[in-house]
Automatic annotation (TrEMBL):
This is LAME_0D10462g1_1. The keyword Transmembrane helix applies. One of its GO terms (molecular function) is metal ion binding. It is found in: Membrane. The chain crosses the membrane at residues 117-141, 153-174, 180-200, 212-236, 248-265, 285-305. The keyword Aminoacyl-tRNA synthetase does not apply. The lineage of its organism: Eukaryota, Fungi, Dikarya, Ascomycota, Saccharomycotina. Its main location: membrane. It comes from Lachancea meyersii CBS 8951.
Length: 312
C-alpha cells in the first residue's frame, strides 16, 4: 500500500522567544523536517553587541549562533541582504576574470606574463575585498566573536583592494622609471601594513572610532596623490594624464570619498530613521560607490595597459 503524503505546518515559539515556522513533510514513510527562522527583529530587541547604527530600527536577524542559519539568511530579505549581494555578485565577476584572464584581457603582441600578473593583482585585491565584505555581512549575525573576526577580515579586504589598485597602476605609470615604481610601491605596502595593524586593534573597532576608521582609510587612498605629483614633476601633466588615465583615477577618488563620507555620517538614515532599514541606507550606498570606484580604477588600468603596448 502506498502511504499518503502528509504535510503539517505549524508556528512555534522556541525557548529564545523566536518565532519559527516549522514545516514537516512525511512522504512514503520518510520524514524531511526543515525549520526556517525568518522573524526579523527591531533595534530594541537585539543584544547590545549587535547594535551599530541606531538609525536602522528594524530588519535585524537576531544572533543565530549557527553558521547554517546565517547561510539561510541569504534567501530572505533583511537589513544586511543588500550589503551582502552588492559585494558578492561583483566579487564573483572579478574572480571569473582572473580564471579566464586570457580571454577577458585584450592581448597585444608585446603582452607578457607580467601584464597578466599586474592586471590579475588588481582583480585579486578586488575579489578579496568584495568577498570578505560579503562574508562579513552574512556572518555578522552569528555571534559577537564571529562578528568581530569578520569585521577584521572586512578591513583587511579594504587594505588588499587599495594596495593592489595602487601597485597595478604604478607599474604602468612608471614604466621606464623602475626606482619610482619601487619607492611608491614600498610606500603603499608600508601604509597597508599600518592600516592592517590599526584594523586589528580592538579599540579601533568601536562605534566611537567610526570617523577615525573612515579617515584613516581615506588618508591611505589619498597617499596616491604622492606618486601622481611625482609623475607630473617627472613627465609633465599631459603625459601623466594619459599614462595613468588620470581622469578615471580622479573619478575613482571622488566615489571612494563620497562612500566614506556617507558611511561616516550615516546619511540618509540619519534624517529619517527606520525608512531606509532594508533599502537605501548609508552602508549600502557605500558598497555601491566602492564597486563604482573599483570599476573606474579598472577603466584606468586597462587604458594605461593598452596605451603602453600601443606605444611599444
Ligand atoms: Zn560593508
Amino acid at each position: 500500500m502506498v502511504e499518503s503524503e502528509l504535510t503539517k505546518r505549524k508556528a512555534v515559539i522556541t525557548e529564545e522567544g523566536i518565532m519559527t515556522e516549522e514545516s514537516t513533510t512525511l512522504l512514503n514513510g520518510s520524514s524531511n523536517k526543515k525549520k526556517i527562522k525568518r522573524k526579523l527583529h527591531t533595534w530594541n530587541e537585539i543584544p547590545e553587541w549587535q547594535r551599530d547604527n541606531e538609525y536602522i530600527l528594524s530588519g535585524y536577524v537576531i544572533e543565530t549562533k549557527s553558521l547554517k542559519a546565517c547561510f539561510d539568511s541569504l534567501f530572505y530579505m533583511h537589513n544586511e541582504s543588500v550589503n551582502i549581494y552588492t559585494h558578492l555578485l561583483p566579487g564573483m565577476s572579478f574572480l571569473s576574470v582572473i580564471l579566464f584572464d586570457h580571454y577577458a584581457i585584450k592581448r597585444f603582441t608585446t603582452t607578457t606574463w607580467i601584464d597578466y600578473v599586474m592586471i590579475d593583482l588588481f582583480f585579486l585585491g578586488g575579489f578579496t575585498c568584495l568577498m570578505m565584505s560579503s562574508v562579513f555581512h552574512c556572518l555578522k549575525c552569528h555571534s559577537s566573536e564571529v562578528a568581530i573576526f569578520g569585521n577584521k577580515l572586512d578591513y583587511l579586504g579594504i587594505v588588499a583592494m587599495i594596495v593592489s589598485s595602487m601597485v597595478s597602476i604604478l607599474y604602468y605609470g612608471f614604466q621606464g622609471n623602475k626606482p619610482y615604481f619601487y619607492v611608491f610601491s614600498g610606500l603603499t605596502f608600508s601604509f597597508g601594513v599600518g592600516c592592517t595593524v590599526a584594523s586589528l586593534k580592538e579599540r579601533f573597532r568601536s562605534r566611537e572610532w567610526r570617523p577615525f576608521r573612515a579617515g584613516l582609510f581615506v588618508a591611505f587612498g589619498l597617499s596616491a596623490l604622492l606618486p601622481v605629483m611625482a609623475g607630473i614633476m617627472y613627465y609633465g601633466l599631459e603625459e601623466t594624464w594619459s599614462r595613468i588615465q588620470l581622469k578615471w583615477l580622479i573619478l575613482e577618488g571622488i566615489f571612494y570619498i563620497a562612500g566614506a563620507v556617507l558611511y561616516g555620517v550615516r546619511f540618509p538614515e540619519r534624517v529619517a530613521p527606520g525608512i531606509f532599514d532594508i533599502w537605501g541606507h548609508s552602508h549600502q550606498l557605500f558598497h555601491v560607490l566602492v564597486v563604482t570606484a573599483a570599476l573606474c580604477h579598472l577603466r584606468a588600468l586597462m587604458g594605461a595597459y593598452e596605451l603602453y603596448h600601443l606605444q611599444l
